Amino acid sequence: MKILADENMPYVQQLFGDLGTIETVNGRELTPEQAQDADVLLVRSVTQVNASLLSLNKKIKFVGSATIGTDHIDTDYLASRDIPFSNAPGCNATAVGEFVFIAMLELANRFDDSLKSKTVGIVGAGNTGSAVAKCLAAYGVNVLLHDPVIADSDPRDFVSLDELIHRCDVISLHVPITKTGEHKTWYLFDEARLNSLKPDTWLLNCCRGEVIDNRALIKVKQQRSDIKVVLDVWEGEPNPMLELVPYVELATPHIAGYSLEGKARGTYMLYMKLMQVLGQEADKSMTSLLPSLWSEQLSIESVPSEKSLLQLSRFIYDLRDDDEQFRAMILINSSKNKRVNCANNNGFDLMRKNHKHRREFSALRVVSTGQSDVNWLSNLGFSGIGQ
Ligand SMILES: NC(=O)C1=CN([C@@H]2O[C@H](COP(=O)(O)OP(=O)(O)OC[C@H]3O[C@@H](n4cnc5c(N)ncnc54)[C@H](O)[C@@H]3O)[C@@H](O)[C@H]2O)C=CC1
Ligand SMILES: O=C(O)C(=O)[C@H](O)COP(=O)(O)O
After folding, report:
1. Which of 4, 153, 158, 222 is most buried when burial is the number of CB atoms within 10 A of its CB?
2. Domain D-isomer specific 2-hydroxyacid dehydrogenase NAD-binding: where (predicted)?
3. Which of 67, 237, 265, 351 best tests ligand 2's pocket when mutated (most atoms within 8 Å of CB)?
4. Is the shortest distance between the CB of 343 and ligand 1 below 6 Å?
5. CB of 94 closer than 6 A to ligand 2?
6. How far does residue 126's CA lie from ligand 1's centre (Å)?
7. CB of 267 closer than 6 A to ligand 2?
């Protein structure tokens, strides 16, 4: 059996190695010729899987995407050919939740403000949005949810988007990208909506770039320096609008979901699904794949202040490093004046490929040596509190 896998998918050899021959490829540049003799195709978000890619392949048994989003997959086409498909719902939701939470702590620190005193609005209350809400609730931040698709069937309370914008100091976006339908999200934040943000709003986008009209965002930011923006995703990836970057407080190349646990979970979910499709027993476990954190335990004496919480979070992941590297990459590209392709070949994708996967909070055991109640840190995701 030939298994064709994206080169940026960890643990493929460990999980799929017994099943056949593995060939790894650059997912963004995968051709129909390369894909023609694959029995199993394992992709990430940068590969468009459609009739054009699979037209030469008459034997494919399974397509898997180790991602939450499926906007790169023509699922109707796969269904029309009875090709089993699976993505990995929720695989990196914790990674996104923690990334967003850390980004908010960074903003609070930068502007000498307090996250705890804010009201945060989550647009899209599925896996990633709920993961953000969980971190915020653990810390005691007031959260409002907007999700008209599930509002009638979900027991949580929801507000309209207008109410959320009106009441929230911070807004974080967690919707899939959809171009049609009553609840389409393409340019959900267009110029009018961006202009309707309250003074001093923080706006974070870690879902898909085109949920915000990036050209309009530049225009609005030119008039309104009070709005603070965090972008992990960009319209037109892998070639973001370079002129937008200076208006963004924290800028990263679509790596909010890049925790080691998140990536391992994505590959593992596809392994489990393939074994089911093949009717074989799955005998591998995910936990055995993950290495220990370089420091597994940290002792704290008292309830951390917001600044100490940021320090604790930076111990796991210092978002400023990725922001700095992203800006350096953009600077090189703009000085070469090669916006098209350069960001792809030398920048955006390269930075994603070489990204050293951070760990999730759960990899760190935090032990309380004092009397203070720090159990909420375990709700945030850390292990071993209070022992
Ligand atoms: N930056 C990154 O690294 C990552 C980005 N993503 C992106 O985030 C998206 C969301 O991921 P999940 O939360 O796991 O998906 P999910 O499917 O669990 O949740 C999405 C939620 O958005 C809601 N929704 C749909 N249209 C909406 C609208 N117009 N207004 C408000 N809510 C709406 C849905 O009802 C659903 O509850 C993915 O589709 C993917 O594009 C996901 C993982 C990592
Ligand atoms: O899961 C998703 O959806 C994402 O956006 C992924 O985290 C993106 O990662 P790649 O698949 O592009 O490596």
Report:
1. 4
2. 113-256
3. 67
4. no
5. no
6. 6
7. no
CA distances from 290 to 97, 176, 213, 262, 311 (A): 20, 29, 38, 11, 24
**147 is an annotated ligand-binding site residue:** yes
Q: What is the CATH number of domain 2-87+259-288?
A: 3.40.50.720
Instruction: Confirm if 42 and 270 have CB atoms less than 8 A apart.
Output: yes
Whether 361 contacts 96, CB under 8 Å: no
Do the domains spanning 2-87+259-288 and 93-251 agree at the CATH topology level?
yes
pTM of this prediction?
A: 0.95
Q: Whose CA is nearest to atom 3 of ligand 2?
A: 69
**Calpha distance 50→122 (Å, rounded):** 32
φ and ψ at 326, to 5 degrees?
Answer: -60, -45
Left if phi > 0, otherwise alpha if psi is -120 to 50, otherwise beta: which for 51? Answer: alpha
The domain limits of the chain are 2-87+259-288, 93-251, 291-317+358-387
ipTM for this model = 0.99
List, in order, residues 6 or more apart from 64 with CB less than 8 Å away. Answer: 40, 41, 42, 43, 85, 86, 87, 88, 270, 273, 274
Please give the chain's pLDDT, 387 residues, in tens.
999 999 999 999 999 999 999 999 999 999 999 999 999 999 999 999 999 999 999 999 999 999 999 999 999 999 999 999 999 999 999 999 999 999 999 999 999 999 999 999 999 999 999 999 999 999 999 999 999 999 999 999 999 999 999 999 999 999 999 999 999 999 999 999 999 999 999 999 999 999 999 999 999 999 999 999 999 999 999 999 999 999 999 999 999 999 999 999 999 999 999 999 999 999 999 988 988 776 677 888 888 899 999 999 999 999 999 999 999 987 776 665 554 444 445 589 999 999 988 999 999 988 888 777 778 899 999 998 655
